[in-house]
Amino acid sequence: MTMNPMTREDVILVVGPMDDSLIFEIIETGATKEELEEAIAWLYADDAMTRALHHQPHGTVAELCEILSRSEIEIDRRD
User: Fold this and answer.
1) Is residue 42 part of a domain?
2) Are 18 and 71 in contact (CB under 8 A)?
3) Is residue 79 part of a domain?
4) Which end of the chain has a smaller Cβ tally under 10 Å, C or N?
5) pTM score, whole prediction
6) Residues in the chain with pLDDT values less than 50
7) What pLDDT does residue 58 have?
8) Domain that holds residue 57
9) pLDDT score for 3
10) Does any domain span residue 1?
11) So what's the pLDDT on residue 37?
12) Would 76 be classed as within a structural domain?
């Protein structure tokens, strides 16, 4: 697991193009790429029941969820 904070390029790789101020805000959390991916999974999970049955995000992941949820970005989910 990567323990280094992300770069601008890392954020864009995970989330896609977005406003530089949001990228900066995400980087300022000190989050890892894995934490950002987890936040996206929480926010964009297709099954609300699955989210309800598991623990709620906390710490950095919860902070990332808050940042992403108030932005109007569209995550390109190609899974």
Assistant:
1) yes
2) yes
3) no
4) C
5) 0.75
6) 1, 49, 77-79
7) 80
8) 8-70
9) 66
10) no
11) 92
12) no
